[in-house]
Amino acid sequence: MTIGDIYVSCSERRKELKRRRQRKRKITHFKHRSENASVSEKAHLAAKIRNMTPGADAIIESLKLEER
Fold first, then answer.
1. pTM of the prediction?
2. Confidence of residue 66 (pLDDT cuts 50, 70, 90)
3. Which residues contact 11 (CB under 8 A, 6 or more apart)?
4. For 37, left (φ over 0), alpha (ψ -120 to 50), or beta?
5. CA pair distance 59, 19, nearest whole angstrom
6. Domain total for the chain?
7. Rounded Cα–Cα distance for residues 48 and 8 (Å)
8. Whether pLDDT at 17 is above 70
């Protein structure tokens, strides 16, 4: 392990943290939008969440965007 490796991994960690925080902000925004959304709008929000994160199914279920 060299000094360069340490800086790269730290930089990558910061990028990942930034992505995680942005996803959290978007999920919060979608949660507020889904409260008054119609069925078609909820389906649209669910599609956006699916494209955004790999753990989308759990999020969609908790926000009740798709009734099954």
1. 0.74
2. confident
3. none
4. beta
5. 17
6. 1
7. 31
8. yes
